[in-house]
Automatic annotation (TrEMBL):
Keyword Transport among UniProt keywords: no
Role summary: Hydrolyzes acetyl esters in homogalacturonan regions of pectin. In type I primary cell wall, galacturonic acid residues of pectin can be acetylated at the O-2 and O-3 positions. Decreasing the degree of acetylation of pectin gels in vitro alters their physical properties.
BP GO annotations: cell wall organization
Pfam families to which the protein is assigned, alphabetical: PAE
Keyword annotations: Cell wall, Cell wall biogenesis/degradation, Hydrolase, Secreted, Signal
GO molecular function: pectin acetylesterase activity
EC number: 3.1.1.-
Family recorded in the similarity comment: Belongs to the pectinacetylesterase family.
InterPro entries for the chain: PAE/NOTUM
Designated name of the protein: Pectin acetylesterase
GO cellular component term, pick one: plant-type cell wall
Signal peptide: 1-24
Length: 423
């Protein structure tokens, strides 16, 4: 009797373990060797790479192309420091990565996209795939070729069947979320006319805010990115004709946007900038002058490098460590962020899921994408909201109440090594 019970328990345990293991599947890397001849290479000159899990059944003509994030490099020094890691060299990339959340191949974890063709494009150029400089400095041997990588990846995927796409999403988180928005129109233009094509930006919303010194360091930072990588002519034309390139990089992006969203932003961002210029300096919670102010649409905060004095260090890792003053400043930032959003306007083809969880990148993690306890707004998970928006089943625009009101949040405790620019 007792033996039977133990066996039952063991069976249950094994099942639970298998379930846990299967929550993510591992997908091997593919190097685009023939991209090298076109000069489409990582910072160190190595070939670009992606991970591709083929679609099946009803998903055979549906494509999800997710771009990896990982901040930016704004000058030769910061770009050189990437040459020896995965953000600048495919030689340093893991040979396989886990696909979960929106990337999952299991129906129970990802009911609307599990059988699509799912691609994760690795990030190794440091410019959100916008760079294109022909010359290679003989001393540093750095290649600034992000835009060529984008083009080479697209050419490859179109040949592998994406040219027949009926449904397609370009997505990404953080710097990858910016990639999604900056390349939104271009992606749309590559696909068949009748296809349903949308752009999803997870935590890719960067507001143009001052730091404590009152300077717009983020603006300066992005202008350095654009200058270093020669990005100007690869930013959406509809934007650059109206604004200087450095401002284009700052276009607020939305969690989920339609393909022509980037265009709309151009028109509207002028007003947004004006709104922010009138903003009295709240002294932002990001005291580091070189910090990229990473106010993510679904985060309160996940900013860049630590402040020199370390006042924000422990707070940034774990929101439970923040002082009341720090929480106040963060709430002030949230208010500013929401004000910036209202300037963007609102229409049924745009979707928004703005939670107040202390998190970064929630679409590619099973626990935040779809699980019995994952974050919800109006009883709706991120997985459901994205699918409803994509298939136009209903309009979804939800903004959470301020932290810490939402009990469904998974507030992350970040590791010190996570606490660097843009990750
Ligand atoms: C490069 O950029 C970083 C980060 O903004 C900054 O700390 C550094 O001083 C810059 N280096 C040069 C040589 O401009
Ligand atoms: C957008 O419009 C919807 C109704 O279509 C409304 O429920 C929602 O609150 C609006 N969102 C914003 C940010 O104005």
């Amino acid at each position: 009797m007792e033996g039977g019970n133990i066996r039952q328990w063991l069976n249950l345990l094994v099942c639970a373990l298998l379930l846990l293991i299967a929550e993510a599947s591992y997908v091997p890397i593919t190097y685009l060797q023939n991209a090298v001849a076109k000069g489409a290479v990582c910072l160190d000159g190595s070939p670009p790479a992606y991970h591709f899990d083929r679609g099946s059944g009803t998903g055979i003509n549906s494509w999800l192309v997710a771009f990896e994030g990982g901040g930016w490099c704004n000058n030769v020094t910061t770009c050189l420091s990437r040459k020896t890691n995965r953000l600048g060299s495919s030689k340093q990339m893991a040979k396989q990565i886990a696909f979960s959340g929106i990337m999952s191949n299991r129906q129970m974890f990802n009911p609307d996209f599990y059988n699509w063709n799912r691609i994760k494009v690795r990030y190794c150029d440091g410019s959100s795939f916008t760079g294109d400089v022909e010359e290679v400095n003989p001393v540093t041997k750095l290649h600034f070729r992000g835009a060529r990588i984008f083009a080479a990846v697209m050419e490859d995927l179109l040949a592998k069947g994406m040219k027949n796409a009926r449904n397609a999403i370009i997505s990404g988180c953080s710097a990858g979320g910016l990639t999604s928005v900056l390349h939104c129109d271009r992606f749309r233009a590559l696909l068949p006319r009748g296809a349903r094509v949308k752009c999803l930006s997870d935590a890719g919303y960067f507001i143009n805010a001052r730091d404590v010194t009152g300077a717009y360091h983020i603006q300066q930072y992005f202008s350095q990115v654009v200058a270093t990588h020669g990005s100007a002519r690869n930013l959406p034309q509809s934007c650059t004709s109206r604004l200087s390139p450095k401002l284009v990089m700052l276009f607020p992006t939305i969690f989920s946007v339609t393909y022509h969203y980037a265009n709309l932003l151009c028109k509207r961002s002028i007003r947004l900038m004006a709104a922010l210029n009138n903003w009295r300096d709240l002294s932002s919670p990001f005291p580091d002058p070189q910090n990229v102010v990473l106010i993510q649409i679904k985060n309160i905060l996940a900013p860049g490098v630590a402040d020199p004095e370390g006042h924000w260090h422990s707070c940034k890792l774990d929101i439970n460590n923040c002082s009341p003053d720090q929480l106040d400043l963060m709430q002030g930032f949230r208010t500013e962020f929401l004000r910036a959003l209202t300037v963007l306007g609102n229409s049924s083809y745009k979707g928004m899921f703005i939670d107040s969880c202390y998190a970064h990148c929630q679409t590619e993690m099973q626990e935040t994408w779809l699980r019995s306890d994952s974050p919800e707004l109006e009883k709706t998970t991120i997985a459901q909201a994205v699918a409803d928006w994509f298939y136009e089943r209903r309009t979804f625009h939800q903004i959470d109440c301020p932290y810490p009101c939402n009990p469904t949040c998974h507030n992350r405790v970040f590791e010190p090594q996570d606490d660097h620019q843009g990750v």
